[in-house]
Amino acid sequence: MSKLDRTDARLLLTLCDVPRATGVHLASLLGLARNTVQARLARWDQSQVLGRIDRLVSPRDLGYPLRAYVGAVTDQHRLEAVIDRLRDIPEVTEVVGVSGEADLHIGVSATDADDLYRVAGLILAVPGIERTTVSVIMREAIPYRTKPLIERLADDDGRTSR
């Protein structure tokens, strides 16, 4: 069940097109009451519906043009400690738990191949990581996105099946 409704989706789509719009401007664009818009923005803030702003900053623009995923096999009994240690490595941009050959996929950014080698070594040195594999990102074919899902919700007429 979605936490958001069609009005939320319309607001989000407008923010996709006009990201710096004020609550008053959004209300005007969508024909909604300013209080309705403000209440929804406040609810999103409180429930952390919107992602963090740093997610929108490209590592390339910060001087880290090389990106990779490090697959890590871990000692399952130390998984939370491993994740805590990975937080301490600035070049680690994300960590997700996965099923399959690896236990974690670790997104990293580096300045060049030598720097990637250094970062991969830092990851491998984390107690509880047993082995790693590195896959360099050659190009980003489809960047992280949710707009098509927001559009689906905005167009949804109450149907629950797809």
TrEMBL record:
Cited InterPro entries: Dimeric_a/b-barrel (IPR011008), Tscrpt_reg_AsnC-like (IPR019888), Tscrpt_reg_AsnC/Lrp_C (IPR019887), WH_DNA-bd_sf (IPR036390)
Lineage: Bacteria, Bacillati, Actinomycetota, Actinomycetes, Mycobacteriales
One example GO MF annotation: sequence-specific DNA binding
Organism (species): Rhodococcoides kroppenstedtii
GO cellular component: cytosol
Protein name: Transcriptional regulator, AsnC family
Domain annotation Transcription regulator AsnC/Lrp ligand binding: ranges: 74-140
Pfam families (alphabetical): AsnC_trans_reg (PF01037)
One of the GO biological process terms: response to amino acid
Stored SMART domains: HTH_ASNC (SM00344)
